[in-house]
Amino acid sequence: MSTASLASTSPRSEFAARLRVHWVILRTCIEERLVYRGDFMLGTLLRFLPIVTQIFLWGAIFGVGTDAVRKEIQGFSYGDMVAYYLLTMVARAFSSMPGLASGIAREVRDGTMKKYLTQPVDMLGYLFWHRVAHKLVYYAVAIFPFTLVFWLCRSYFPGWPDAFTIGVFIVSLAMSFLIGFLLESLIGLIAFWFMEVNSLLFIYMMFNYFLSGHMLPLDMFPSWLLAIVKFLPFKYLAYFPATVMLGRYSHAELVNELIVQSAWVLGLFALNRLAYNRGVNRYAAHGG
Known about the structure:
Layout: H1 3-33, H2 37-46, H3 50-62, H4 78-95, H5 100-110, H6 114-118, H7 123-152, H8 163-189, H9 198-211, H10 223-229, H11 239-245, H12 251-285
């Protein structure tokens, strides 16, 4: 075989090898999640219990009864609030990354991350596919409860939006997963400089719950706070996907929001790679 043909086939072979590595990682992580499938299924189903309390809570706030149908709070009726909360549950199921940051910090602290330095496996790439596997198994288990809950609460929804809006909703969920992953992994990578990140993680989780719209719609924030929050990535973790399905954006606004969300994904990805590369150099320089 000539040198020219080797040069032409080598990049293709290298790409195929990388795909095989990613597939093996994904398959292995799925099998790992299924080892304790009984415990996983029970934990998944129990997460649906807060739905009942939220429906009763907002029913009490709106005073369900005589004039509840006409009553609105910042443009949200009682039905809108129930629908919004159900949709944020879907979004948070994509964007939440429990244990990711603390797991990275633990591996940096106890030295087990050395396995990523001695093997042809990228740490962030491995953790990404591990989370993809977790979400795939989660939704395989949760698809029936989600379907049942949405069917029982179908009267709270204004109806199906147009096909373009549904497409944006699906894309926004995928990018909410990426933003959630990149935010938590970035916090975990801080362990290269500060060995303990639990306090920082607690602060992040508090701001995340509040500023993502998981606790209540961002429309209920004061105008000065809303002007700040709309430029942060947190709203794309829960608020934006939920309000997309509620039809609160025009098509032009949806395109603009997707551009901003994509910019956050690219920016956070660049920060992760920078933090990881510099952190590994620092880690190696100290003999870890």
